[in-house]
Please model this.
Amino acid sequence: MSMAGNLRKVTSIGGVGGLRRVARLARRRPRVDLSHPARSPLGSSVVNCVTYQDGCRVSMGGDLVEAVRQVRKSGEGFVWMGLHEPTNQEFAGIADLFDLHPLAVEDAVEAHQRPKLERYGETLFAVFKTVCYVEHDQLTATSEVVNTGEIMVFTGEDFVITVRHGRHGSLGPLREELESAPQQLAKGPSAVLHAIADHVVDDYLSVIDSVHDDVDEVETAVFAEQGVHVDPGRIYQLKRELLELKRAVVPLNRPLEDLAARPIRVVDPEIQAYFRDVSDHLQRAVEQIAAFDELLNSILQAHLAQVTVAQNEDMRKITAWAAVVAVPTMVCGVYGMNFDHMPELHWRFGYPLVVGVISVACLVLYRGFRRNGWL
Model:
């Protein structure tokens, strides 16, 4: 049963006693399952709060503090609370209840963190960068290709707190998927941590597949007949968006390796094998991003080479025509001088002869330049 209710009112509380009052207020109102973003009321930072035992939802009467007390007293199950962009005041009471480290709380509220894994006592704090592909009809020099967000996960022996930043990366479908596999969820909070990591990395691979289509489109345009007219800003923009994706994916390598190899108390040993699988998928994503980056460098160099070749061809054409025009210019320049004694100046056939010489000379030059590919 959901215990989200009016927990967002913790903005003015900041203590356990206040949390009890909020929980009592929540019991007076109809409960709504907020696991899906479409069911989350505007202004609510608490998305969902559920207690699990043996992989199944259980009802704890709607009182968060009492639910945590019962879970800790029985030594079975855990509480999973999800929040979306909470403020310091909204998170203060929750941080006190679960004894979260102030530095981790600050990172979770402020966001804009690098993917990482930190241990504070018996609590793990993990930061994941979420990504989504921004659909566009045509890639331009200003197109947004990749949009990023963040998911922070506090993992203890009897609780999981997820803090999401950004408009995408909802964990509602993931929660429903986990609840359909109670045998996995029964392994505790580390199963939720693994599911989130797997979900994030799967999104990486999906976005990379979409970016691949954009890379193919740019490559085809550059090597087409009119590739010289391709806007290089499109290539730079795609590289910039690829860099954004790289910043989200690559730093996650080390945290996943730690979760897969290092013994951590709150991580079930059976779950570590699953983290190794996620780490392998992440490595595949890292390799694909590196390959795309190298390919875009090659495409950009090829485009610049095409532009240089086109400019050289234009310069050769200009030079050839200048050489052709230089012949009549020179002859006319000589005969344009006002001297009284010049060869053939008063001869009846002088003019036709000069015009003929000019025409033949220009024709010879033109054929020569055509034969050499300059025209």
